[in-house]
Amino acid sequence: PMILREDYRPFGWLVPNVRLDFTLGLAETTVRADLQVARNPAADSTPVLRLNGDGLNPLEVLVDGAVMNSWVMEGPDLLVTLPDDAHTVTITTRIDPAANSQLMGLYASGGMLCTQCEAEGFRRITFFPDRPDVLSTYRVRMTGPRADFPVLLSNGDLVGSGDGADGTHWAEWHDPWPKPSYLFALVAGDLMVQRDSFTTMNGREVDLGIYVRAEDEGRTDHAMQSLKRSMKWDEEVFGREYDLGIFNIVAVSDFNMGAMENKGLNVFNTKYVLADPDTATDGDYDAVEGVIAHEYFHNWSGNRITCRDWFQLSLKEGFTVLRDQLFSQDMGSAPVKRIEDVRVLRSVQFPEDSGPLSHPIRPDSFREISNFYTATVYNKGAEVIRMMRTMAGPERFRAGCDLYFQRHDGEAATCEDFVRAMEDGAGLDLRQFRRWYSQAGTPQVRVAVASVEGGVELTLSQTTPATPGQEGKQAVPIPLKLALHDRATGTLGEETLLMLTGAEQRVTLPHDGDAPVLSVNRGFSAPVVIRRDLAPDDLVFLAARDDDPFARYEAMQDLVVGHLLSAVRGEAPEKWGAEGGRAAIRDVLATVLADDGIDDLMRGELLILPGETYLAEQLPVADPGRIHTAREALKGWLGQALEGEFLALHHRASRVGNGFDAEAKGARKVKTQALVFLAAGNPGLAAELATAQYDASCEPGGTMTDRQGGLLVLAGLDSPARTARLLDFYNRHQDNPLVIDKWFSLQAQSLHRNALAHVQALAQHPDFTLRNPNRARSLFMAFVGNANAFHAPGGEGYRMIADTVLALDPLNPQTAARFVPPLGRWRRIEPGRAALMREQLERIAAAPRLSRDTFEQVSRSLG
Ligand code: ARG
Ligand code: ZN
């Protein structure tokens, strides 16, 4: 059944207090739940209390302590009819955590027990109104064998613990903050803890703990430092203080997503907690910091103020992503972080928005909410709030946030509530801006510049392409930061903010001198596609000279995209100048390589060529094979044309130490990028350098960043060193699952012509399993990202992904459904491959007993 946003009704009953009593066992856990319920005066009155369940049977139901037998099941739900306005309903259920392969609800992972309840996992533990607008305080008692579960954790404060009979012990936790069921958490296991503490701005002491398995002890330092920095930053930048005496984090290896913001007890995928220089890359360090911050920030944007219903998911996720992005900007290089975030938006969210799964950041309908934890809800949601910040300026934005937190503290709110707080607190008029919440699709903005008397006239227009279920689109307000630069004199213009609100708009801007070069959507001030007809010389100028780092990156991308698209289309290259623009690209790259004005982290961004998915996205219908060939050809040509420069860069960067400062991180970034170009231009030389880089990284103090980078390049080449180093890497790290994930990934991502066959073989490797989501993704998501291999002309890649979906769906539907969208891109791929992609979607659709998750994604993809 389809669930509609407009069907929202408040729940008929309030559940102010919940007591849970767990008798824990890996294969059998008994749950006794006491729900204190009362009629909700704000809802339609009903004597029927509908409690959601998923795969549960009630062993016993009591009302006010007396057995009641008149309950009925309606599908998975339990219906209890209550005579009066207030009661205590007690329900006993029994579950088998070890058999829970979906990893939703209470499940076993490596001998420990843990929970994941967002969005609808709590109903797999006990019967409950499992919806985010029912807020309760929880008191949780758990008992279990001390030997198996020495650590017993839940939300809030520990209020008691002790020993029981037969080697059991117990603990009781109380969370004073009312919360929805999706924020409940319980962890029981044999875990080590790193402890620390944080003093809040009002002088309250908070005990911090990061719990991991014994073998991961010593890898939690970075997470702990990141947590303390997040707590401080949220006080300083958003005025948000932590509100309990304890904040715990637990790392779990079997986890569907990144992490979960359960009140006072965040549960994390190990991938976003554990880090040390020998096993984590610089990218992993940044991801740990970002996700720790994200989950911590949810304490206010998500927990203190939660969502009324799941259509409002972006209320907490979009806002929290923006908050973690701003945090990471402040912790490291702001321009580099901005470019990274835009790259993710364009390579993941833009394709989503232009395909069959396109939806507004606040969707209108869904079958399975797990399918809506998307780049649109998260990343475009963050961009929409970032635009409000750009329009208001940081101070007024902060005032809007303050008002939001103050007005809605303790409530289950809506996106509309947030927008209204921004209007009232930040003084913005957001009447038209609300369309960003309701309209799907990426706006396309055309910008033309013409010289007029005393200045220039800009003609701006916008259209948003139709998306499934939304034919006619309206204009949205688009904040565009822009500047006019003088190419002849090299004078850079002042930045101004221009609001494009209509379908078409003309603006005259003062400017002296020759026709200026337009630098537009600086800092990526709006999540739109800009169509600007800039001459290659102007792009060269911007790429080499613009004072906005993002605009420089953008010009570089546009220059390369322009060249590659003409190559793909087989167009005459004159427009792009000598050698179809290759010479211009070479010259800008040479400038970038020599530019002392930027650091290596930024230089690294300017060296990244647009990805194959992003290139495909620029064409109505793409031929992935031609795109790959054209991109590799350019890379190879540049690798040869700038061989000396790349060699020098690799040499210089190799002499920087193994530290974790910006200089060392930047050096590592450009070092591997130099290898990437050299591998395309001079494979023999690159193999030698990559091998040397790998070997040096195995010396004491060497880093995983260098080791993985060297091996990734080597894995794409035919070199005797290839097999030896792959084997060495495996042997070196076979006891560390997160590093073995990298080993699978880098082979699946490699440019080796046999990558597809390698992936087929790796799927049979004894260490491979679909039961662990990280491992499944390490092989098959990495493979999907390897456009050339995934789009093998015979369709073997598509078949392999469909096989994966079919094998995974019965075990873990949520993770299985995530492999469907890549096949859903078929309409945008050339007809031969499109037919093969469709064929695989149809094969999935025809399978018996498909989960709701996969069914929804496949049927939307087939259209
Ligand atoms: N709220 C979590 C986060 O973004 C994500 C949880 C998603 N879980 C799920 N089963 N879909 O931090
Ligand atoms: Zn989140």
From TrEMBL:
<protein>
    <recommendedName>
        <fullName>Aminopeptidase N</fullName>
        <ecNumber>3.4.11.2</ecNumber>
    </recommendedName>
</protein>
<keyword id="KW-0479">Metal-binding</keyword>
<dbReference type="InterPro" id="IPR001930">
    <property type="entry name" value="Peptidase_M1"/>
</dbReference>
<dbReference type="Pfam" id="PF17432">
    <property type="entry name" value="DUF3458_C"/>
</dbReference>
<feature type="domain" description="Aminopeptidase N-like N-terminal">
    <location>
        <begin position="79"/>
        <end position="183"/>
    </location>
</feature>
<keyword id="KW-0378">Hydrolase</keyword>
<keyword id="KW-0031">Aminopeptidase</keyword>
<dbReference type="InterPro" id="IPR035414">
    <property type="entry name" value="Peptidase_M1_pepN_Ig-like"/>
</dbReference>
<dbReference type="Pfam" id="PF17900">
    <property type="entry name" value="Peptidase_M1_N"/>
</dbReference>
<dbReference type="Pfam" id="PF11940">
    <property type="entry name" value="DUF3458"/>
</dbReference>
<dbReference type="InterPro" id="IPR045357">
    <property type="entry name" value="Aminopeptidase_N-like_N"/>
</dbReference>
<dbReference type="InterPro" id="IPR038438">
    <property type="entry name" value="PepN_Ig-like_sf"/>
</dbReference>
<dbReference type="InterPro" id="IPR024601">
    <property type="entry name" value="Peptidase_M1_pepN_C"/>
</dbReference>
<keyword id="KW-0862">Zinc</keyword>
<dbReference type="InterPro" id="IPR014782">
    <property type="entry name" value="Peptidase_M1_dom"/>
</dbReference>
<feature type="domain" description="Peptidase M1 membrane alanine aminopeptidase">
    <location>
        <begin position="223"/>
        <end position="436"/>
    </location>
</feature>
<comment type="similarity">
    <text>Belongs to the peptidase M1 family.</text>
</comment>
<feature type="domain" description="Peptidase M1 alanyl aminopeptidase Ig-like fold">
    <location>
        <begin position="441"/>
        <end position="532"/>
    </location>
</feature>
<feature type="domain" description="Peptidase M1 alanyl aminopeptidase C-terminal">
    <location>
        <begin position="537"/>
        <end position="862"/>
    </location>
</feature>
<dbReference type="InterPro" id="IPR012779">
    <property type="entry name" value="Peptidase_M1_pepN"/>
</dbReference>
<dbReference type="InterPro" id="IPR027268">
    <property type="entry name" value="Peptidase_M4/M1_CTD_sf"/>
</dbReference>
<dbReference type="GO" id="GO:0008270">
    <property type="term" value="F:zinc ion binding"/>
</dbReference>
<dbReference type="GO" id="GO:0008237">
    <property type="term" value="F:metallopeptidase activity"/>
</dbReference>
<dbReference type="GO" id="GO:0016285">
    <property type="term" value="F:alanyl aminopeptidase activity"/>
</dbReference>
<dbReference type="GO" id="GO:0006508">
    <property type="term" value="P:proteolysis"/>
</dbReference>
<dbReference type="InterPro" id="IPR037144">
    <property type="entry name" value="Peptidase_M1_pepN_C_sf"/>
</dbReference>
<keyword id="KW-0645">Protease</keyword>
<dbReference type="InterPro" id="IPR042097">
    <property type="entry name" value="Aminopeptidase_N-like_N_sf"/>
</dbReference>
<dbReference type="Pfam" id="PF01433">
    <property type="entry name" value="Peptidase_M1"/>
</dbReference>
<keyword id="KW-0482">Metalloprotease</keyword>
